[in-house]
Predict the 3D structure of the following.
Amino acid sequence: MFWRMVFRALGRQKKKMLMIAFTIALGSSLATAMLNVMFDVGDKVNQELKTYGANIRVVPQSESLLTEEFGFDDNVSQFLKEEELGKIKTIFWAFNIVDFAPYFESSAYLKDGEKVSVSGTWFKKHLELPTGETLDTGMTAMKTWWSVQGSWLDDGDDTGAMVGSAFSKRNGISVGDTISLFRKAEGKQRGQTWIVKGIFDSGSDEDEKVYITIKSAQKLFEKPGLVTSIEVSALTTPDNDLARRAAQDPSSLNRNDWDTWYCTAYVSSICYQIQEVISNSCAKAVRQVAESEGAILNKTQLLMLLITILSLIGSALGISNLVTASVMERAQEIGLLKAIGAHDAPISILVLTEILITAILGGIIGYFAGLGFAQIIGQSVFDSAINIKATVIPLVAILIFVVTMAGSVPSIKLLLSLKPAEVLHGR
């Protein structure tokens, strides 16, 4: 008898129930889309930000790398070993390492005696990793915002160079010109000539530099197989109190906190793991980049959460109006049920059951529509698909239940206030 009354009531109010289902579907679809994007946005935002440079810098433990005259001390412990770079991709968070590039930096001199900063690096290096995998990495992938006139260097081009726009303008250098660099060593000049293959505009102090292959730089400064620093671009998790405590002193953590920190992709834990595999190294976060990533990610997630909450509040208000209107239309029916002995509780359960059935239908439709919206957002904003999270299903179900119940409260209050005598006499 109860279910017969439920389905007859649904049949008599098809239009109103469809409107309720549509309202719930809208809220469900937006909640599904936003929650899926929110849970997946961390990697997506990080991937976008990785195109704007490295967030970790690795240097030798000894900071006294430069001497006043020759650029370097002869102590090998003040350098990093190029042969160890592949080990960066063997750490626990290896898959979070997007790109990395070594640098050999020092000062050289032009023919007229002008001092210039020279940096040897990998441009696009093909690596055979210790794990048996292969990887293409280097500065080309990490400096995508550079505006280059001419072309990027190839790693095998030891006769080519790239010069900064400020340096080229001051010295009247164009693409195709030659540039000779010298270093002072043991009382005599040692130098080499390069062909300018590209002029870059970075919008920073790098525009004063000259870039050559790392092999050329090592040869010029007679430091084969050594590098002065490494830039690493890694996908990281925004810092919290645990990450900040660990960054100050990892040994201060207890065992549980240590395991949590080490197995989470905080920038400090990735730095620590890099130090474990690169001998004589000190890895530090580029704080401006790392903190900006965390701030942008947190604000993006907060924005999506607010959109979800506001959409559900809107759905609750819509449900409240529609259900209240439905109860008012059925006032005589409800008054008659009360007059023949029905109590408030069974009548309230009857109305709520009708609404919940409608909510389930609208929620299912909205969930699948939301999956489609999530993919549209992913492709249009991040140019990649959004990974569907199974945890969103129970979350959406709970949210829809709460919203439906909240929206039904005013109508249930109205239902409880109805008096059979007044309703049946048209008052």
Notes: The longest strand covers residues 188-201. The two ends are 29 Å apart (CA to CA). The chain has a mean pLDDT of 81.
